[in-house]
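Here is one chain, start to finish.
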Amino acid sequence: MIRLLFVAALALAAVTYVGGGCDPSTSPVGDIWVQIQTAVAGADATPAPSLSTRYVATGDSVAAGEDLGADCHAGQSCIDRAQAFPALLAQRARSEYDASLSITDVSCSGATTMNYLRDTQCGFNRSQAGALGSRSTWVSVTIGADDMIGWLENNRRCVLDQRVADLLGKRPADCDLYAEVIAPFESNLKSILDGATAHASLVIVTQYYDVFSPSFSPAVTHLPYNWTEGVNEGIDLLDDAIANVASQYGGRVVVVDLRPAFATHLWGDADSYITRRHDCSLLDLALVWSSCWWLPGIHPNATGQQVIADEVWAQVRRRVAIQ
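Its structure:
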């Protein structure tokens, strides 16, 4: 408000001076008027960073670019970080915001929230939480899917066990999703975001997309456990938990919901953003108890990664523009 009043006062002075018969282009006030016009013209532009932006990308296989490698073999990890959304986001930010932006990518395929907080993985000499430093400007967090996948496997067994128990007239132990996964996940995610917000001016948390298209479900409804619904429901619960924890930080944490962008591009859709898992052999795909059988694809393909980068950048740009 003070700045606007100051600009208005200078503008009034310039108009008054010009009204006295002086040419603003040859007067001292004219110089001021040019500065005022320049300031007003740039008022809505994205401000240039005062220091070089340091972006730290953290998370799991979605952030690491799993299943994007050019030379993929069954049973092996197949990462290509250059095609993953953090690299694409950094490229976009350098083009439109800060040409000197640097990126440190410590995301790791298979990482859970507990791994994130305390373990060294993927050849790094510190945990992902430990990679954050006082010079971090932006931090992206993509974590939780591997926390949930463990539960999904157990839940599948619980449902199948329940079918057998019903036949035998017995009752197996309950599968409590909240107690087993959601509660500890929320606690760990809060610790992650506590650390991220303490080090970075902008923290971006990506939620997950559903995996299976509704059009894919009818083919498996004859099975005793409809895993496609179980996976999607588990992801929705995970996304709700992410939103719940992030809401505790107000505007300090930006949440990016990927479900709308992926809604008609899931596994089973003609134009899917999800690629087949390359860590699954033909034998794995044939074994009912293998996760490869009931979860044949989960990671974004190159198009999906670009979509994630675009969704994240849209949120980052809005946030940067008002800082």
